[in-house]
Amino acid sequence: MREPAPASQPGGAGLAHGAASARGDLAAAGAPVAGPQVPTVLQVLRRLDSSPRGLTEAQAQERLARVGPNTLPVHRGASWPRLFVRSLRDPFTAVLGCLGLVSAVVASWGTACVILLLVGVSCVLRATPEHRADRSMATLRKMVATTAATQRRTEDDAAPVAREIPVDELVPGDVVRLGPGDPVPADVRLLRARGLTVYQAALTGESVPVAKDAGDVPVAAGSRTGPRARGADPGVGGFDDPRLCFQGSSVASGSGTAVVVATGARTRFAGAHGRLAVQRETSAFDRSVRGIAWTLIRFVLLTPPLVLMANAALRGRGLETVPFAVAVAVGLTPEMLPVIVSTCMARAAALLARTHGVIVKRLTALHDLGAVDVLCLDKTGTLTQDRPVVHRALGPDGTEDFEPLRWAAVNAWSTLHLADLPAPDALDEAVLDAVDEDALGAHDAVAVLPFDPVRRLATAVVRTPGRLGTHTLVVKGAVEAVLERCALAEDERDGLSARATALAEDGLRVLAVATAERPARTRDYTPADERGLVFRGFVTFRDAPAPTAADTLAALADRGVTVKLLTGDHPGTAVRACRDLGVQVAPEAVLTAGDVDGLGDDELAAAAPRATVFARCTPEHKARIAAALRSGGHTVGFLGDGVNDLPALHAADVGIVHRDAVAVARESADVVLADKDLTAIDHAITAGRHSGANIATYLRIILSSNLGNVIAMLAAGLLLPFLPMLPAQVLAQNLCFDAAQLAFAHDRPDPRTLHRPTLLRPRGLLRFITGFGLLNAVADLATFGVLALTLYGPDGLDDEAVFHSGWFTENLVTQALVMLILRGAGRVPGPVAWAAAALTAVGLLLPVSPLGAMLGLTALPVLYYVLLAVVLVLYAAGLTAARIRYDDRQRRWPGGIRPARGRRHP
User: What is the E.C. number (predicted)?
Assistant: First the structure.
């Protein structure tokens, strides 16, 4: 919300917001309001206590002290300690912290130290990359223009002096000069303008420059004078007023002089910063982890009481089983999960930053990128370049004809040389690129009438070779403006208008060209001479496709990512851009803002996945579409770059911008690209899927293995006259497991995982770990049978050291098997394979080593290893068969990870 305007200001105010009561600063300075109260230039200058000559230095200093510097609200990144503390909120980290404290209470110091060390390492790994991303963003904030061309006076009666001053020293009432390429340094009201067009894409999403004019022509609220971008929202408050330019926009062509009406926090652009405080919805990663965490938390909280009660009832044990009960709970918990997750994502984020210049601000956004199955974006700068190209030139009869293009090039060339334009505008540049210089002929420019938003025309007067005493007027501009000045019958004019409309509906921009011959003269040419013209034809333009867009769209489709266009342009323009890139869009796959407005939330959630193009979208439409796609079970990425994209950046699972986006959008986004290029997004999605697949594989393996061990441990605790494993042995086993599991952070996942969006599904993961955990428990119980019946007879289990040693070895070796088989067969050995081999070696060698004796382990007879090998072969065969069956049933979708399609299951 904007600040209310104070009722008055002393000394004539000198502030735009200080003289219009409740109308607000921009309304006071010239924004369109209903009725005859629209202020003129003179009224604006009086209210600002300024003049076309600018302020004096004394006035400027007084106002700077009163209103403050012309700077946006500063977004300060969190400090490293705050990020560290914030990392403790992770559900798994919190559970581990509680288990560590409980272990300390029951004097299990080894377990407590290991757990708390893992918690600290996890928080460091998560906080460090995010802090580094904040520093990178601070560097980007400095890459902006810092000065503005201003005219000020030393004294009231002194002549104004033009000079460059820091942007933050601008105050309301300053007079600034605008030229091609200049950013608009504040909200300004035009005093003079010549051929001025402004890019407002950062504010409104319009993909073409908007014509601006200083004339005091009444403008109804919500209207637009002069040509406008087809499909741009007609109701965006003062953005439609041709007399106003806003901070966050930039000059495309022409020049102008303007008076500053609002600075700093009072600008429209600064108002968008307030949206940064809006709490974002829970991301896909957070939802998934929270679901899995709460499932495990229930088991963890339930397990110790059950162990204590069962041991007390069946074995008459008391508090001495508390450390064992805590060890069982720790055994069920994937204590390395926070470390694995943080390491996977930190490595991927560092690789993206180093090789592709991609900054990941929120580390968990990498998982969300890997889960993205819908990518929403605007076409300009991503699918298309920020420039048009000539498509065709059509004669009056609608056939291909070079003459309209040649005359348009003559007009553009003459305008470039005679008008005060250091560079051609976008359409003129496209025309000149399409025509060889030799084709222009020897047309000497005599005069030009530059484009202005009232006439919507640009006229060049040239001498035509071989026609002495004759000047030729070459006129090009908006179709309606040119046709009404041509000598045409009514039916001819209607037919040409209909043809131009059809071309526009096909997604083309249309320029009309006409000429007229006049006797040579020395007096100035005026708009009154633009009459009785001979219509020459149309020149049509299309947006130039981005060089990498077609290939990247194909790559994204291969990865299961659907691209949807959310644009403020005409539907035909968006469909044309898709068609040029090889993407065919059916008529029913196009929705306009009006269609979206006519649908309820549930209806939009059903219709949005079927649509490809959403045209004439306002910021609110974009946000609603992103939310509808999320509610339909999709993980949504949104690529934006302007203030108008902020609502959608917040509504999506992953907000993505490029580094040249407006500062407020960069602050709001999760991922910042080096360039506005879909290729960078493809790299980011690939990195997200790599890290997500490794995390998923770790979860499948560790949770199924842990569940099997816990089941076996509970059974052994009830069957044996002693604890199935000493606390020191549990700690040593967990340390071995943890060290081996670090390999998952460095593994290369199965290439098939890169071809489908991945999202952790708690229910699917629970089914997987239950099935494979029971299979692991069977292997453990079979080992008990080997120890009991084969080696020592029915009383063999009474030997505590033998049981501890046999089960310790079997646990480590079966864990190694699980790591290899559930990782995926037939793949090139990697870190996980080497870690599994090391784990097997520890399991076989530790009991016979001096360290094993210190832990209470003992050597086992050779026959045990022979029989253990039989059990392990049978277990490996069963595990492989179960894995193949599971993969076949899931159509090669990894257990616990399913494509984000259809409705999101609870």
Answer: 7.2.2.14
